[in-house]
Design goal:
The complex is a heterodimer.
Chain A lengths: L2 H24 L8 H12 L2 H34 L1 H16 L2 H12 L4 H23 L3 H9 L4 H39 L5 H10 L3 H31 L5
Chain B lengths: L2 E10 L2 E11 L4 E5 L6 H9 L6 E5 L5 E4 L11 H8 L6 H10 L4 H4 L8 H14 L4 E5 L7 H14 L4 E6 L3 H6 L2 E4 L5
Parallel strand pairs in B: 3-7, 3-8, 5-6, 6-7
Antiparallel strand pairs in B: 1-2, 1-4
Helix pairs in contact in B: 2-5, 5-6
The chains are: A mainly alpha, B alpha/beta.
């Protein structure tokens, strides 16, 4: 384990100690459950068969929304990078999606689609502008001299994409994914909390609120944080591997 | 077909860089453009390569298939030397042939699979030269190709270029007077505008 990881581990332990201390000072488990209570609740949840079904329900929906937004964001950015008029035409939509409060979309989506696939749509809307903006920025900052070189050598569009655009866009895309995966989970679960689709993490949070069960609330929050981190690490790893694939032309 | 330049002029804003320049670039020969710094050699090359349009005058006979060594190396940094050549070359060229070209220009087998960002300036220059040589083209533009090369390597590169450009139209821009004798080329002189 390197120094940075040891530092992070100590910071994590210190944060749990602060949490425990805070809970002891407040002395009311309804207001702030102790880490031990949360650990007990987590242990109880792990052995419950419904726990994994609930997690699967929420992950598949948030991840679907994220992946759809990733593909759509890249596609739109490529078109916008190629055709100026398209970039201008799409500007109002991207700005509206960026600026509109998530709650407005949640209500709108409840009217349009119902609650079952609400988190797909909300994650999609949260991730789309981040991916679009980052990838477009990457395309815009492509080295013009390399493109001139490729034109002179009459390099095909596919080779230009592979040799020039992909390496250029790669850091922007990875950065967009790092930022937006956490946002997708936050917004997706918030949407579930409002729409309360049956068998979702949002429903569990809603029940914790109704029954003033702060132990469950904290336990499910920890679950959301953990699945968001695991998904981010796994997805980034898959994406990096995919972008490293050598293509023979 | 020879390339005919007739009364070519080019300005950037109020600065006139080339004025009424006429010349002939001979097919299947080494054509060496020489002149002092700022006389418009690279601008003329950029016009011939199609990156710039002349303000006035005409240019005829420039082939479609071009290759070039630019003043900057213009390499794809995260790719290896071999991949940089693969990017512009035909599918038919075997990797062994590419490796043999690198060997003949003094780039070792250990270096050719590293990302070019990890290579020295001189090696990168040679990668750019091999790339231009192995690209399918009817005309080769060389803009100061020996920039950053020491004397020993420069001689190796000169021999490599000579051996691989027989019966090809080459346009070389350089400050180096010795190149005229080395390549036995046609000299095209450019002067500073008054």
């Amino acid at each position: 384990m390197n120094d940075s990881k040891i530092e992070k581990l100590f910071a994590f332990i210190a944060a749990i100690a602060v949490w425990q201390l805070g809970a002891m000072i407040i002395g009311n488990s309804l207001l702030l459950a102790t880490p031990i209570t949360v650990a007990h609740r987590l242990a109880a949840l792990f052995v419950n068969a419904d726990f994994w079904r609930i997690i699967w329900f929420s992950i598949t929906r948030v991840a679907s929304g994220f992946i759809l937004a990733l593909l759509m964001g890249i596609f739109l950015a490529v078109i916008a990078g190629r055709f100026h008029f398209f970039k201008v035409a799409i500007f109002p939509y991207i700005t509206a999606i960026k600026s509109t409060p998530v709650a407005s979309f949640i209500v709108l989506c409840l009217i349009w689609l119902g609650s079952q696939n609400l988190s797909v749509f909300i994650s999609f809307l949260i991730v789309l502008p981040v991916v679009y903006t980052n990838v477009l920025q990457g395309i815009k900052s492509t080295n013009v001299k390399l493109l001139e070189m490729a034109d002179l050598f009459r390099v095909s569009w596919w080779r230009k994409l592979y040799y020039i655009y992909v390496p250029q866009i790669k850091p922007y895309l990875l950065s967009a994914c790092n930022i937006s995966i956490g946002m997708a989970f936050k917004a997706g679960i918030a949407a579930e909390l409002i729409g309360i689709p049956e068998g979702s993490i949002g429903e569990m949070l809603y029940e914790a609120k109704v029954y003033l069960n702060s132990g469950d609330l904290f336990a499910w929050s920890v679950v959301i944080i953990v699945i968001s981190i695991i998904f981010e690490k796994l997805f980034t790893c898959v994406l990096k591997t995919f972008l490293r694939i050598e293509v023979k032309f | 077909m020879n390339i005919i330049l007739s009364n070519v002029s080019k300005s950037f804003g109020k600065k006139v860089v080339i004025q009424n320049f006429s010349s002939v670039i001979y097919q299947h020969q080494f054509n060496i453009i020489m002149g002092p710094s700022g006389c418009g050699k690279t601008t003329l090359l950029n016009i011939l390569m199609g990156f710039l349009s002349p303000d006035r005058g005409t240019i005829t006979g420039v082939p479609e298939n071009k290759s070039a060594v630019f003043q900057e190396d213009r390499l794809c940094e995260s790719f290896s030397a071999v991949s940089n050549v693969r990017m512009v070359s035909s599918k038919d060229i075997d990797t062994k042939v590419i490796i043999e070209h690198f060997r003949s220009i003094g780039i070792t087998k250990n270096s050719i699979h590293l990302p070019v960002s990890q290579l020295s300036g001189g090696m990168r220059r040679r990668v750019a030269i091999v790339r231009a040589i192995l690209a399918k083209s009817d005309i080769l533009f060389l803009d100061e190709p020996f920039k950053g090369l020491d004397v020993e390597i420069k001689n190796v590169v000169i021999e490599y270029i000579k051996a691989n450009t027989k019966s090809k139209t080459v346009v070389l821009v350089t400050h180096d007077v010795s190149c005229v004798n080395e390549f036995n080329g046609t000299l095209i002189k450019m002067d500073l505008l008054e």
